[in-house]
Specification:
- It holds the Pfam family Cons_hypoth95.
- Its EC number is 2.1.1.171.
- The protein has helices at 26-37, 56-63, 76-89, 100-106, 124-136, 180-187, and strands at residues 46-50, 68-73, 93-97, 111-116, 140-150, 162-168, 171-176.
- Helix 4 (100-106) packs parallel to helix 5.
- A 7-stranded mixed sheet has the order 3-2-1-4-5-7-6, sandwiched between helices.
- The chain starts with 25 loop residues before the first helix and ends with a helix.
- It has one domain: Rossmann fold, CATH 3.40.50.
- The longest helix is centred in the middle third of the chain and has 14 residues, at 76-89.
- With 188 residues, it is of the alpha/beta class.
- The chain is built from 6 helices and 7 strands.
């Protein structure tokens, strides 16, 4: 994998082959960050990277200037790899070894961008539970965005706060945001 843009643009990161991961492709990642570029100033963002695997998405945010990044994965090897890579590149990434659902249930911090890339073989309910826990526990800032990467077999457009989706190859990014209409209703 390589870092697409920012301070470490073009740097290649090679993860150990034994890690149980399916990294987001460079093409998908580049497309995702083109979308995010139009919404955010990266240096001001707090990031939560769920099912972070190799840390691919976390490194991209760090390279673009985000300084508050939490990467959560259940695999000890993945968490160690992120910790070592972040240290090597002097990136402010906080890797956490935890079950993502337990982390979301206990988290007390809210984030500007939450990115989740669970295994594609997760059930529909497991995907839905990610969005449910994020919004139920107020983990997304008012102007924030939740992005869930999934296969075409998973359908998330029926969930509350769904705003759009984009397909890149065999990956779909579903975006969730608070809308102005929902914000207005909450204030009444």
């Amino acid at each position: 994998m390589r870092i697409i843009s920012g301070k470490y643009k073009g740097r290649r990161i090679t993860a150990p082959k034994k890690l149980p991961v399916r990294p987001t492709t460079d093409l998908s990642k580049e497309s995702l960050f083109n979308i995010l570029n139009h919404h955010f100033n990266f240096s001001e963002l707090t990031i939560l990277d769920l099912f972070s695997g190799t840390g691919n998405i976390s490194y991209e945010f760090a390279s673009r200037g985000s300084e508050e990044i939490t990467s959560v994965d259940t695999d000890f090897g993945c968490v160690n790899f992120i910790k070592q890579t972040a240290k090597e590149f002097d990136m402010n990434i906080n890797p956490v070894k935890s079950d993502v659902y337990k982390f979301l249930e206990k988290a007390k911090t809210s984030y500007d961008v939450i990115f989740a890339d669970p295994p594609y073989d997760f059930s529909q309910e497991q995907f839905e539970k990610i969005a449910e826990l994020v919004f139920q526990n107020d983990l997304l800032n008012e102007e924030g965005m939740l992005i869930i990467e999934h296969s075409p077999q998973t359908k998330l457009e029926h969930l509350p706060y769904f705003s759009s989706s984009r397909k890149y190859g065999s990956s779909i990014f579903s975006f969730f945001e608070f809308t102005e209409e929902e914000d207005t209703n909450e204030e009444e």
